[in-house]
Amino acid sequence: MSMKIGKVLTVVLVVLILIQLIPGPSHENPPVTGTPKWDSPRTEELFKRSCANCHSNETIWPWYSTIAPLSWIINLDVSVGRSKFNVSEWGRPGKNDGDEAAGELRHGKMPPWFYMPAHPEAKLTAAEKDELVKGLAATFGDKSAEKEKKEEK
Ligand code: HEC
């Protein structure tokens, strides 16, 4: 029995070592090609704290972001996050869903829950959250509030 557990652990360890050899994408941040006109420096500051790691080209990559399989999850989050909404490529053609940002935050969908334990700085007080929702709406518009208003009528 214990021999079996030893074998399983050895296999897990070997696999963990081997997956480190799979090359990941570079963590060099792409250039900033456009920025939105923030309604206030405070909105930008709160966004930087809570959202910018996945929604800008100014990602701060933590040391563990190079260790597989964590790196795979982090790389995916940043690339999918940037593809949907990127404040460093404001004005680019294609998808850039700023007008959904206020709604995502208001409904507690962003930042993703699994991001929070390792990023205490991203946690907003109720007052800060309210400030950021209003700032995002003022900067990008607020699609979900418009929709909810229509549904009330
Ligand atoms: C850990 C990375 C991460 C952080 C931090 C993060 N997001 Fe996201 N965000 C994503 C990913 C991944 C997606 C795409 C998948 C999804 O919609 O759930 C996304 C999607 C979005 C979208 C597009 C929604 C859509 O359906 O098109 C908006 C808008 C958004 N996030 C806003 C925010 C705001 C505002 C914050 C900060 C309060 C934030 N995000 C923080 C990773 C992140």
UniProtKB/TrEMBL annotation:
Signal peptide boundaries: none
UniProt xrefs under InterPro entries: Cyt_c-like_dom_sf, Haem-bd
Transmembrane stretches, start-end: none
Haem-binding domain ranges (all copies): 13-140
Molecular functions (GO terms): electron transfer activity; heme binding
Protein name, entry field: Cytochrome c, putative
Organism expressing this protein natively: Chlorobaculum tepidum (strain ATCC 49652 / DSM 12025 / NBRC 103806 / TLS)
